[in-house]
Design goal:
- The chain is α+β, with helices and mostly antiparallel strands.
- The protein is built from two helices and five strands.
- It has a five-stranded antiparallel β-sheet.
- The radius of gyration is 15 Å and the shape is globular.
- 18% of the residues are buried.
């Protein structure tokens, strides 16, 4: 564990390899019915994917679709690290942070 690199220190290829490894572990956990382990690997893969996204593509003030939570939209207030902070549209207006990989542009062509 101590020899592992942080996602921020990995190259794009290393990140893609790590994502594939985590998705395979998630698949195996799901097949074995270990749902909490499945969820952990899914979330780790999502975080690794966030390091493949250029934060400059996420614009504060814009509204994005939330992957995995269809029908909901997220208005970004600001970015901090690999998280977008803001509010779910039509929700309780509680501020929350989502990994960048969970956001998809609502504009056509993106």
């Amino acid at each position: 564990m101590q020899n592992e690199k942080k996602y921020s220190q990995m190259t794009e290829q290393e990140l893609r390899t790590e994502i594939a490894r985590l998705m395979e572990k998630a698949r195996k956990a799901e097949q074995l019915g270990i749902l909490n382990e499945y969820a952990v690997y899914q979330r780790k893969a999502l975080m690794a994917q966030s390091y493949l996204i250029d934060p400059a593509t996420i614009v504060p003030g814009e509204i994005y679709k939330i992957q995995g939570d269809e029908g909901y939209f997220f208005k970004v207030d600001y970015l901090k690290g690999r998280f977008a902070w803001g509010y779910r549209m039509g929700g309780e207006q509680a501020e929350e942070a989502l990994p960048l990989a969970m956001l998809t542009s609502v504009k056509s062509g993106k």
